[in-house]
Design a protein that fits this description.
Strand content: 15-25%
CATH topology: Rossmann fold
Radius of gyration: 21 Å
Helix content: 25-40%
Distance between the termini: 23 Å
Strand order of the largest sheet: 6-7-8-3-9-10-12-11
Shape: globular
Structural class: alpha/beta
CATH superfamily: P-loop containing nucleotide triphosphate hydrolases
Length: 330
């Protein structure tokens, strides 16, 4: 865990009430989308957040940026609790953090030109003379690999990869310190994904950005992240350096995720052992007692069914929430 934390999440929870009835609504349950997240990022660090669809990754990203208010916990950015900000103070703080959304087809306003999209982002948060806006917009487009002549075009005139470049330019328009990238390449063609990943990697290093890179693809995260945090059913179950998590996973769930990543070597691919998880992930509306992973775990013991595991350190940089962590990794 970084000692000079720039972003700190302390017991962050995001729960959604489930109501029944039309006129007289009654709460009948709670969806625990994010259920007690503790995580720290150092300034300039990239952390990959991985897990199955529905585990709460995107909800956590939106909670960090206060697009969804947390039910409990604190989100500290450079020591300031974002969850305590509202109205004008929150609007001013948004220059420090921005998001790159998953679908560039949905995240850009089809009625606005590229110039209007980027100029709005700049002028909303910064006092920039109107005669300087074209120059700023052109510089942003060039930074993401697009020609300045594209600024008068509309989103429908671009390919998916070009639209995502525009979305990245919009996120960078206010010169943020923190970026949440929510599966920014999953909606793109495979041939384009590497270009966008290389662009994000270059910009993060050049601008010294702190980033949470959300993905369900562990192999993608391995090449862009400094550390990996593995999420399951609203909780983080393992954290560690990216290469180490990929090469020697500790938590049984992480082992299953890594075993599903294809290996570009036909000999190894034939001989390696795949771990097939039994059943489907439990519903966050009715999570299991004890360890949330125990219904699908091959190492389960009676204590797993009743005791919620806390963080257990495997070494200085590796930790996981598994009662049998040391025993199954000897």
């Amino acid at each position: 865990m970084p000692t000079d934390a720039f972003l700190e999440l302390e017991n962050v929870r995001t729960h959604f009430p489930v109501e029944k009835g039309f006129l007289f609504k009654k709460q009948v349950g709670t969806v625990k989308a994010v259920d007690g997240i503790d995580l720290s990022l150092a300034k300039g660090e990239v952390v990959g957040l991985v897990g199955e669809s529905g585990c709460g990754k995107s909800t956590l990203g939106r909670t960090i940026l206060q697009l969804i208010p947390p039910t409990a916990g604190r989100v500290l950015l450079a020591g300031r609790d974002l969850a305590s900000l509202h109205g004008e103070s929150l609007r001013k703080a948004r220059t420090d953090f921005q998001m790159i959304f998953q679908d560039p087809y949905a995240s850009l306003n089809p009625r606005m030109t590229v110039y209007d999209t980027l100029a709005e982002a700049i002028s909303t948060h910064q006092s920039v003379p109107s005669n300087q806006l074209p120059k700023r917009v052109s510089a942003l487009l060039e930074k993401v690999g697009l020609a300045a002549r594209f600024q008068r075009k509309y989103p429908h005139e671009f390919s998916g990869g070009q639209r995502q470049r525009i979305a990245i330019a919009r996120a960078l328009a206010v010169e943020p310190k923190l970026i949440i990238a929510d599966e920014p390449v999953s909606a793109l063609d495979v041939s384009i994904q590497a270009q966008i990943l290389n662009l994000i990697f270059r910009l993060v290093r050049e601008m010294k950005l702190t980033m949470i890179f959300i993905s369900h693809d562990l192999s993608v995260v391995k090449h862009i992240a400094d550390r990996i945090a593995v999420m399951y059913l609203g909780r983080i179950v393992e954290v560690g350096p990216a290469v180490e998590v990929f090469e020697r996973p500790l938590h049984p769930y992480t082992k299953a995720l890594v075993s599903a990543v294809p290996v570009p070597d036909p000999v190894r691919e034939k001989t390696r052992r795949r771990i097939i998880l039994a059943g489907d992930p439990p519903s966050p509306l009715n999570p299991p007692k004890g360890c949330p992973f125990h219904p699908r775990c091959s190492h389960v013991i009676d204590a797993c069914r009743t005791e919620v595991p806390g963080w257990i350190d495997f070494n200085v940089e590796r930790r996981a929430t598994c009662l049998r962590l040391k025993e199954i990794n000897l």
